[in-house]
Amino acid sequence: MTAEILRLDDKDRYPENIRTAAQALRSGGIVAFPTETVYGLGVCADNDTAIDNLYSAKQRSRDKKLSIMIAEPGDVTKYVKQITPIAGRLISSFWPGPLTIIFDLPDNRTVGIRNSSHHVVRDLLNAAGKSIVSTSANISGRPPATDAQQVISSFSDKVDVVLDGGSAEAGKPSTVIKIVDNTFQIIRLGVIGKERLNRCLNEDCLSIRS
């Protein structure tokens, strides 16, 4: 299998290319796409075989969870029924944007959710009509891809479609945090720094554990 490369700079073909990628997702394929941080790889969240293929392509341990991409901030309630005040403030301040939030679920599981600000991600989600689980486009342990050519170099025979949107804007990954009681823990520093998170949550009242 060789990945189909679809350029997104042709405005006339853009809708068709998004539909092609969405169909690949619905058929169980892996799609690479640009975000405002780095390139990502995604599959439909309801397809266990596709998820297995994604872990295999990335050479990622199954104990490292994938994130769920949502099209709108309000879609978080599809997965997390109770949004704490601190989570609500973070969502209001940083979504859509380069922040992945890990929530605790009632059954002692966790879920990481991101609402990307990149229009390609939103358009792909809406066209697929399904939730997408995602991870950065890189072999585990290597730097994430920041353009389509880097994706192709690593995954040309492992993904079905590459949406070529040029160079990723930020060039480094999203910040990942975990909600912990009335504060949060930084899991990975990325585009959003500790100072911005502190300012959002009123530094003299809430602390960051990292």
Number of helical segments with 4 or more residues: 6
Mean pLDDT: 93
- Strand % is 15-25%
How is the largest sheet built, in terms of strand order? Answer: 1-8-2-3-7-4-6-5-9-10-11
Strand segment tally? 11
Structural class: alpha/beta
Distance between the first and last residues' Cα: 42 Å
- Estimate the helix proportion, in percent: 25-40%
Low-confidence stretches: 204-210
Series of H and E elements: EHEEHEHEEHEHEEEHE
CATH class: Alpha Beta
Report on the structure:
- The chain is α/β, with parallel strands linked by helices.
- The chain has one domain: DHBP synthase.
- It is 28% helix and 24% strand.
- It has an eleven-stranded mixed beta sheet with strand order 1-8-2-3-7-4-6-5-9-10-11, with helices on both faces.
- A hairpin with a 4-residue loop joins strand 2 and strand 3.
- Helix 1 packs across helix 4 (119-128).
- The longest helix has 13 residues, at 14-26.
- It is globular, with a radius of gyration of 17 Å.
Topology of helices and strands:
Blueprint: E1 4-7, H1 14-26, E2 31-34, E3 39-44, H2 48-58, E4 67-69, H3 85-94, E5 99-104, E6 110-114, H4 119-128, E7 132-136, H5 148-155, E8 161-164, E9 175-180, E10 183-188, H6 194-200, E11 208-209
Give keywords.
disordered C terminus, alpha/beta, eleven-stranded mixed beta sheet, globular, 28% helix, 210 residues, DHBP synthase
